[in-house]
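Tokens help. Consider this.
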Amino acid sequence: MFDKLGGLGNLASLMKNAGKIQDMMKEAQEKLAKIEVVGESGAGAVKIRMNAQNYAKEVVIDDDILKEEKIILQDLIAAAINDAAQKIEKEKEKLVGANMLGGMLSSDEK
């Protein structure tokens, strides 16, 4: 009989924290919307500025690299996009880690 009540207590605790989790997710999404990174390749000859929603905001190609063959330029663009994507993932991991840690600390303090 008491085991069943313990289960209800866990459910109540989960429901109580659901709002807090939603608030944390909303805050994380707002922060993600502001994150922008620059991916580079060819020692900075190609730069791609992307946001955390994986939209390319700007492409900068050095004039000297335009003299190269098309396949080289294509590879450099792809490499810059991949570099930006990796940087975005690192930023997301930092943000999620900070939110999880912050949420755990604030609930432990109570």
The mean pLDDT is 82. Residues 39 and 82 are 7 Å apart (CA to CA).
